[in-house]
Structures are given as C-alpha cells and as structure tokens.
Specification:
The protein is built from eleven helices and 13 strands. It has 394 residues and is α/β, with parallel strands linked by helices.
C-alpha cells in the first residue's frame, strides 16, 4: 500500500456504519488510509469494520453522537490514540425528516441543526488544530443539494444543510494557505436507507407503488436516477487527494438537481446536455442579467495579472452580483466569456479548471466563448457576463 495516494494517512469518517459513510470509509481505506469509523450505533460500525477488515483495511471503531460535545471529545481522543494523526476528516453523519413547515416541532428543528450542522462544527473544531499545526489536513463535509436551494416540506433539513455549506465556505476561507482544505459534496437523492424511508413515506401517504413513489421523489428533485454511495465516495476521495480548497461538488445522478431552473427540451432536438436547449424561470423566479465583469479595470493600478488570475477575478465579480441578489453559483444558467487571446485561454485550461471547481464544484451551466479584438478596460484580457435564475418553485 506504500504507493497508494493516502498511504500513511489517518482518516475519521462519521456516520460510517452503512450507506454513504461506509462507502467513503471503504474508498479511503482502499487508497491506503487507516480509518476510524464512527456512528451512534455500535452494531452497525462493528459490522462495517468487519467488512473493511476483510478487504485488508486498517480500521477502528468508536461510538459517537456528533451532536454531543463530550462524545466528540471522546472521538478525538480515540482517534489520536489509534491513528496517531488525523489527516482526513469526513463529516458524513446526518439526519433527515420531512414535514410542512407549520407542523415542524422545535425539537425536530433543533435535532436536524444539531446533527447536520453542529456535529460537523464540533468535529472540525476537535481535529483542525492539530492539522493546522502540522500544515496538512483535508476536511470534507457531506451536505446535500438541499444546501444549495430550497424545497417544500424540508425547511429544517434545508436550513441545516445550508448551514453546513456555509461552514464549509467559512472554513475554506479561514484555512486558506495553511495546507488545510475544506470542501463539501452535495448529493441529490441517493440509494441509501434514508432515501428508502422517504420513498416509504410517499407510498404510505399516496397509496402509490414503491416504483411510482420512487419516480415521484426523483421527479420532485429533477433527478433521472438515484446517486450511488460509490459516486459520493469517489468524489470525497478526489477531494482528499487534491490541493484545491473550498470546492462545493454537486452529485446529481443526471439532471439539474435542486436548481430553480426548468430545462426546456423539445423532443425533436434530442436529449439535452447541460442547459443546451433552454432554461425557463419557474413561477416566482427572477431572471438576473449580470453585465460584463472584467478581470482588470482601467482604474486599477500596477501591472495587470495573467489570464488565469483575471479569469478568477471576473468570475468572483459575477458571483458577487448573483449572491447579492440572493442566489448562488448553481443558479447561474449561462455564461459568456469574452477573451482577447484564445490561445491564452487554451494554454491555461488546466488552471482554469481548478479555479472553476473552487467556485462551482462539478456544476456547469451553458457557456459561450467569444474572441474579441480588445476590451474597453485597458489591461483586461477577459470579461464575463452571465444570466442567472433565482428563486421560484417548480
């Protein structure tokens, strides 16, 4: 295992007794990490540990309630004793419920915030000081597409996942340049017991068959299929072996999950790719046009930076406008990128990809690239304008 990408690393994965958490622990162990898996249920993590050990993994277990500060402290002590150092932290433990907002009890609201948001905060606070001291660490929070947009009947779940995405972004900003990175993965409905319970609730409430209930759940989110735990685990592994920071990776299983966008796809044009056919604002939604934002303004002093730096600056300006209007990166439906040197764009594609992932994760809107002879702002080599669809419901 010495040639494995995570050989010699210690990893803690919460909520790892089954489903996505177990898949993540398996992926990290297969990549060479020693793994401590945690869950509130001893039997679950013991069975998961046995399956991991059968694959040759170095695995340990610890019962932990991530919403309890004392329990998280015990987790930290156990991890340090058994792993030596904790280089990788995956905050996967989570809970979900559904109810119309007027029927959500305060106890239910507090429970989801405690598990989904406070739990990640407590675990990050427990392990990050040693990461910062060593100058290396990878923190990945398993959030949800619900952390990027709203949905009916899950106000408490949605709020908790928004909080988790916010914690991720704040952590990435605070730890930037230290060797410690923070990311979030945002899956849609996944093939897990949690989704099975959701489907069963729909079946009980509507009298539909299991197949019809699953189809209704997927349709409500705009998904074509369930996300697999292996897909989420692969993204977590990629983030743990990356030098990037602050990525929000969206995993959809196909289709623009959770986005307040309706894709218009005439059958005569064939299957859509991304938003290649059309986007329609839903009822109550707003269309925001972001005027061209340049990577260097004529009023700026000093020497204009290179193409990649200007590209990042122009993207940040676009996203600042979108967020000021109450939107997020995943609300951007279309970008037009104007460049003065097409070859410079092509030469920096690798760097541009990293800059993109830091801001958009794996989400890509419709994009157009236009070469121009020059831009009004002296020294500017790139200008980006955008269209976003914000708010509304399908």
């Amino acid at each position: 295992m010495s040639g494995s990408p995570l050989a010699g690393r210690g990893a803690v994965v919460t909520g790892a007794g089954r489903g996505i958490g177990e898949a993540i622990a398996t992926a990290l162990a297969d990549a060479g990490a020693a793994v401590l898996i945690a869950s509130r249920t001893a039997d679950e993590i013991d069975r998961a540990a046995a399956r991991l050990a059968a694959r040759g993994a170095r695995v340990f277990t610890q019962v932990c309630d991530v919403s309890d500060e004392v329990s998280v402290r015990r987790l930290g002590a156990a991890a340090r004793e058994r792993l030596g150092t904790v280089d990788l932290l995956v905050n996967n433990a989570g809970a979900a419920q559904a109810a119309p907002l007027p029927r959500i009890a305060l106890s239910e609201w507090n429970h989801l915030l405690a598990v989904n948001a406070t739990g990640a905060f407590l675990c990050t606070r427990e392990f990050v000081p040693a990461m910062l001291e060593r100058g290396f660490g990878r923190i990945v929070n398993v959030a949800s597409v619900a952390g990027l947009s709203g949905a009916r009947y899950v106000a408490h779940y949605t709020a908790s996942k928004h909080a988790l995405v916010g914690l991720t972004r704040a952590s990435a900003a605070e730890f930037a340049g230290t060797g410690v990175t923070a990311h979030a993965v945002c899956p849609g409905y996944a093939d897990t017991p949690m989704t099975a319970r959701t489907v069963a609730q729909v079946q009980s409430r509507t009298g539909r068959t299991p197949e019809e209930s699953l189809a209704a759940v997927l349709e409500s989110a705009g998904q074509q299929r369930l996300v697999t735990p292996a897909e989420v685990a692969a993204e977590v592994l990629a983030l743990c072996t990356s030098e990037d920071n602050g990525r929000i990776a969206v995993i959809t299983g196909g289709g623009p999950v959770g986005l307040p966008l309706e894709v218009v796809n005439p059958a005569a044009l064939g299957a859509p790719r991304g938003f290649s056919h059309g986007v329609l604002a839903p009822p109550g939604g707003r269309v925001l046009f972001v005027a061209g934002q340049v990577g260097w303004e004529a009023s700026d002093t000093g020497t204009p930076p290179g193409f990649a730096a200007q590209f990042a600056r122009a993207l940040d300006k676009v996203l600042e406008v979108v967020r000021s209007a109450g939107g997020s990166a995943s609300d951007v439906a279309r970008l037009t990128v104007y460049v003065t040197d097409l070859e410079a764009y092509r030469a920096d594609l690798r760097a541009l990809g990293g800059l993109w992932r830091e801001r958009f994760g794996s989400y890509y809107p419709a994009m157009a690239l236009v070469q121009v002879q020059g831009l009004v702002d002296r020294g500017a080599v790139v200008e980006i304008e955008a269209t976003a669809v914000i708010g509304g419901s399908r």
